[in-house]
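#struct-help
A.M.: can someone run this one for me? Single chain, 96 residues.
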Amino acid sequence: MMKLLPKKITSKMNTKELAKYEKLVEAWIQTGEDMVKAQAESTIYGRKIQKLSKPTRAQQNKDVSLIDKAFKAEYKAFKKADEYNKYKKLMKDKYN
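D.P.: on it. C-alpha cells below:
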C-alpha cells in the first residue's frame, strides 16, 4: 500500500490543494476496491465454468466479459494511482 503525505506537508497546503489531494486519495482507494471486487468476481466465475465439461457459449461470453471488466477496473485503478503519485510528488517538491 502506498503511503499518504505526512502531516508536515498537508498542514502547509492551501484549501484548494488539500481538497484536490483528498479527492485523489478517495478516488485511488475506491478504484482499488473496485478492481479487487471485479477481479474476484471474474476469478470465481472462471473457476466455476472450468469445472463444467462443456460450458455453453453464453457462459464463455460471460467469462470473457468479466475478464475484460476486471482488466478495465485494473487500468482505472492504476491510472488513479499514477495521478495520486504524481500529485503527491508535486506537493512534496513544493513544500519540502
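A.M.: thanks! The mean pLDDT is 95.
D.P.: also worth noting: The two ends are 23 Å apart (CA to CA).
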